[in-house]
Structure formats: structure tokens, C-alpha cells
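Attaching the record inline, Q. Sequence:
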Amino acid sequence: MNLNQSGIKKTDYISEKQILFCSEGYIGVGVVVSQSAGENVGGKTIVKAGTPLTGDLTARQTAFTKASTDTDSNVVGIAYNDIDVTGGDTNATLMIAGYVNLDMVDSTVESTMLTADVRKALKGNITFLK
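Structure, as predicted:
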């Protein structure tokens, strides 16, 4: 919400990107996400929804980073929604179980980050559907 010089209140309503196929079985936990996990999107640093993240689930206040996507993938979950980390590390939701609608995931994230190795490392906790 912003106030301009005339005292008129301006509110921006933004709908969150939704990647869930259905809400049944969804488990998300609050974590801190590192600014280094983001990429430049229109002048902002954004971690896109579906990005595989790694970190210690028992120390979620320590910033999670982008996971490796190869055979040694250390992924523990994926970004539940787009995360603006322009201002530095920030709080976000890490999806650790559920069903993801791949039609709602950015095509670059799907093709370059959600590799077979990442999916295997998630141990079937997250199911990806089209």
C-alpha cells in the first residue's frame, strides 16, 4: 500500500502464482531463501516457483539455496511460489510434499531445473503432473 502526495491510498492486488495440481497432500514449511538462488526477472531478483532448493530442514532460518540438478542432487523441496529476493534473503514457503501442475511452472524451470535426478532425489514426495 502506498500513499501519494495527495493522501490517496493506492493498493496493489497481486495474485500469487499457483503451481499446485490439487491441495490434497500438500505440505509446505517456512524457510529463509538466499538471494543467490534468484535470477534477474525484469530488474528484480526472483526465485521462480518450482525451483529446487536445498538446505537443512532442522535449521530453516539458515538460508536455503538453489539445489544441484545432477545425479548428486541435494534437493529437499521446491519453491512454492515466486519469491522476490531483490532486497536480500527472505522468508518463503518450501514445498516438501504434494502434487505440482507442470502447466503452471515456468517452462525454463521445468526443462532445466526439474531434471530426472531432481525428481528422483525428492523420493516421490512431490508428484509432477501435466
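The first helix runs from residue 107 to 112. The mean pLDDT is 91.

More tomorrow.
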